[in-house]
């Protein structure tokens, strides 16, 4: 019977606290560089990106000619690699250079033809070029709780507040107020109780008893 191998106990995650937060990665990187220059143990830091999203930046319009040119460049590079590999088996320099040049030429021709035909058969569905990237809406600089005060002291002494800070540390709520109690004769405490509301029938009964 097959059994799934068991692993050892998972290592507990470090207790990290928020040091500062920015809306740009370069600002978070600058904070880590500042702490590193001050001799702070940077292995206690972490940059965490939150609110991740994918951004596609359009770089230009794609036509049949541009698709052929892009394919030619890619094919030429591939042909260069193939030509250099095959050139290792040649005996003369002339044959080596000729083989590399022919490989680049035929690779460029094949790449241009493939790029042109593939874009033409798309029927104008995607007539643009773009570049994709994953970005975060906020970059948090976290630090181990044991050295948080040291990192805060370094930043307050050598780094002015940046205008890119998007998260502020919430103020402390203060100590919890004690419960109001009364001391009894035996040393214990008793909490206040709200007297129950009496009914009119009970009040009339008490009045009649007093008159008797």
Topology, element by element:
Blueprint lengths: L15 E7 L2 H13 L7 E17 L2 H24 L5 H28 L7 E17 L3 H11 L22 E3 L5 E3 L8 H12 L1
Tell me about this structure.
This protein has 212 residues and is of the alpha+beta class. Helix content is 42%, strand content 22%. The protein has helices at residues 25-37, 64-87, 93-120, 148-158, 200-211; strands at residues 16-22, 45-61, 128-144, 181-183, 189-191. Helix 2 (64-87) runs antiparallel to helix 3 (93-120). The chain is elongated and about 70 Å long.
Brief characterization of the structure:
Helices cover 42% and strands 22% of the residues. With 212 residues, it is α+β, with helices and mostly antiparallel strands.
Number of strands: 5
Q: Structural class of the secondary structure composition?
A: alpha+beta
Give the helix level as a range of percent: 40-55%
Give the low-pLDDT segments.
1-12, 159-164, 169-181, 188-196
Q: Which strand order does the major sheet show?
A: 1-3-2
**Through-space gap between termini:** 91 Å
Task: Note the total helix count.
Answer: 5
Mean pLDDT: 77
Topology as a string of helices (H) and strands (E) = EHEHHEHEEH
Largest sheet: 3 strands, antiparallel
Strand portion: 15-25%
Instruction: Determine the oligomeric state from the structure.
Output: single chain
Radius of gyration: 38 Å
Q: Estimate the global geometry from the Cα principal axes.
A: elongated
């Amino acid at each position: 019977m097959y059994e799934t191998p068991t692993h050892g106990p998972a290592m507990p995650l470090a207790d990290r606290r928020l040091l500062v937060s920015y809306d740009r990665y370069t600002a978070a990187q600058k904070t880590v560089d500042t702490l590193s220059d001050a001799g702070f143990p940077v292995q206690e830091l972490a940059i965490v990106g939150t609110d991740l999203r994918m951004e596609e930046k359009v770089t230009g319009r794609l036509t049949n000619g541009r698709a052929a040119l892009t394919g030619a460049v890619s094919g030429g590079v591939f042909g260069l690699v193939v030509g250099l590999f095959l050139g290792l088996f040649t005996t003369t320099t002339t044959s080596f250079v000729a083989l590399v040049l022919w490989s680049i030429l035929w690779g460029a021709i094949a790449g241009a033809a493939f790029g042109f035909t593939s874009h033409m058969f798309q029927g104008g569905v995607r007539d643009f070029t773009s570049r994709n990237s994953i970005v975060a809406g906020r970059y948090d600089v976290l630090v181990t709780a044991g050295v948080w005060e040291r990192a805060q002291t370094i930043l307050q002494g050598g780094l002015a507040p940046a205008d890119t800070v998007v998260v502020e540390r919430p103020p402390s709520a203060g100590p919890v107020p004690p419960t109001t109690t009364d001391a009894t004769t035996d040393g214990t405490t008793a909490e206040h109780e709200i007297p129950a509301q009496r009914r009119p029938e009970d009040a009339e009964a008490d009045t009649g008893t007093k008159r008797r």
